Amino acid sequence: MILTGFVFLMLTAALSPAEGQEIQKITENSVILTCSGSETVAKWYKKKEINPISTSVTYEVTTNDGIVKGEFSCEYTTEESKIIKHLFYLDVKVCENCYELTGFLAWGTIIGDLLVTAAVILIVYMCLPKNTGSTQQKASKSRTASAPPPPNPDYERLNHNTRSTDLYAGLHK
User: Which GO terms label this protein's molecular function in UniProt (predicted)?
Assistant: First the structure.
């Protein structure tokens, strides 16, 4: 249960980027970033470079080795001449057969698992024989019925005088 809570927390953190920072799409060899605060022009920078690498609202980071990694930032000016900068840190594995795990799919999987577990518990509960008071009544009647039976005459107590004294015939203290 604690692990499930931790997974919820991590999914929420992973699926809720800061305002203005969006990964628009992850393709088989690239990641498309969007600087959503800007409507027309945004300057994109890689790491702490001075010259912008792009001046559009979206920027596509491509790779050939399957891992998109690096620090990127977008910068734009608002109508009030205020410069706003958003930072992106990417460490994304891209591949042909990958698919994105959405929050809906993750929640659906966890809730489905809980429902299946509850169904198994209910089936086991329904299939188990019910304990009733009749077994307790039988036990109490058998105790009060009569005295215990006498010991079997075929088995008698050991007589120390008639026992064998061989090496392995008895218990030596």
Answer: transmembrane signaling receptor activity
Neighbours of 59 (CB within 10 A): 23
| 135 within a domain of the structure (yes/no) | no
| pLDDT one-digit tens code per residue, 60-112 | 888 878 888 889 888 888 888 888 888 888 888 888 777 767 889 999 999 99
Contact 19, 87 (CB under 8 A): no
Q: Look at residue 60 and tell me if it is in a domain.
A: yes
Domain containing residue 78: CATH number: 2.60.40.10
Spatial CA neighbour of 36 closest among 58, 5, 12, 53: 58
Number of compact structural domains in the chain: 1
User: What H or E segment, with its residue span, contains residue 24?
Assistant: strand 21-26
Local structure of 68: helix, strand or coil: strand
User: Are 62 and 32 spatial neighbours (Cβ–Cβ below 8 Å)?
Assistant: no
